[in-house]
Fold this sequence. Notes:
Destroys radicals which are normally produced within the cells and which are toxic to biological systems. Its EC number is 1.11.1.-. Keywords: Heme, Iron, Metal-binding, Mitochondrion, Oxidoreductase, Peroxidase, Transit peptide. Belongs to the peroxidase family. Cytochrome c peroxidase subfamily. By secondary structure, the chain is mostly helical. It has one domain (12-42, 84-340): Peroxidase, domain 1 (Orthogonal Bundle). 36% of the residues lie in helices and 7% in strands. The chain has twelve helices and seven strands. The strands form three sheets. It has a three-stranded antiparallel sheet with strand order 5-6-7. Strand 5 (277-281) and strand 6 (287-291) form a beta hairpin. Helix 2 (50-60) packs parallel to helix 5, helix 8 packs across helix 12 and helix 11 (314-322) packs across helix 12 (324-340). The longest helix is centred in the last third of the chain and has 17 residues, at 324-340. It is globular. The two termini are 35 Å apart. Mean pLDDT is 83; it is low at 1-10 and 14-79.
Amino acid sequence: MAFRFTTSRLTPRLATRAGLTTAVGLSVYRAPALRTMSTQTGAKKSGSNTALFLGLAALGGAAGYYYHNSTHSLAPQKTESKPVDYEQVYKDIADILEDNDYDDGSFGPVLVRLAWHASGTYDKDSKTGGSNAASMRFAPESEHGANAGLKVARDLLEPIKAKYPGISYGDLWTLAGVVAIQELGGPTIAWRPGRTDGVSAQSCTPDGRLPDAGKKEDHIRDIFYRMGFNDQEIVALTGAHALGRCHTDRSGFDGPWSEQPTIFSNEYFKVIAGRKWVKKDLPNGGWQWVDKNSDTTIMMLPAEISMYNDKAFRPYFDLYAKDNDRFFEDFSKAFGTLMELGVPFKGDEKVYRFKTTNA
C-alpha cells in the first residue's frame, strides 16, 4: 500500500484555511489494467460518506413536478429546465473534493483523470470520441482497462447531476477536472458548456485509444498526435501527473510521482529531472522506475522515462522544471483544448474563467 503524508494532505484549500503555505505539487500518470497513463485512484477506506452521497441522490432525483387534479390523482406537469448556474456547480464540486479517508485526502486527482479519459479518446481523422457523448457511462467503454477505478469519480458526481439535471454528463465531468486542477493550486482554465450526452453504447469508442504507460515515447506520440497535439503540448499535459498515484489493482504500477500528490505545480518535472532512476521489478511481473536515493515509493512509469530521454521531448521537460509560470500557461491552453475535443459547439457559448473558492 502506498504511503500517506500528514503534510501533503494539506491541499491549497486546506492550507489556506489553516493559514499555512504549501510549496510543491505532484504528478500523476496512470496506467490501468492495460497500463494506461493517467491519474489514479485508490480504494475507499472505512469512514466514507457514501451514505451522504446516496442521500443527496435520493433528494435530488425527482423526475418532474406533480399536482393534484380534481380527483386527487397525480399527473406529471412538464416544465422547462432551469438554466444551469455553472458558478454554483463549480462551488458544489469544490466542496466535495476533500476526504481524509480517500487516497491522499482528495478526490481531485481522480476527477482530473475522469475528465482526461472522457476527452482523450478523440480521433481527429474520424471525428469520433472526445467528451461530447460522455460515453464512459456505457459498457464496454466503462469496462475498458484504462478506465479501471473511474466509477468512484462518476458516482461521486451523481448527486451534483441530480441537483442540476440540466447539465450534461460531458459538461459535468470536464468541469470537475477544471475544478480539481484549480482548487489544488493549478492555473485558471477557460471552460464552456455545450456537450450533449449520448443515449446508448453506440457512442462508445474502441478500446486502446488511451496511452499505455508500459510502452515507449513513439507510442505516446501516436496517441496524442491522433488527437491533434504537438510535442510541447504532450509534455505540458503530462504535467497533470503532478496529481495522484498509481495502484497495482488498477494499473499494475504502484506509488506517487512526488511527495505531495494533492498539490498542482511543476514538481513533477523537477522530480523526473532531478533524481536518478533505477528499474524495480514488481510482484505482478511488470516493472517501473524508482528513485535510487530515496526510501520512499516515488516512481515513474516506463513511458515517462522514455519521453524524458527523447531529444525532442526533453527541452520541454527541462523548461517546465525551471519555469512554473510557463508550465501553467502552456498547461492551461492544452488542457482547455483537450476538454473540447470532438464537441460541436454552436459558437455562442459563454466562456467561464472560474475563481477558486479560496481566492
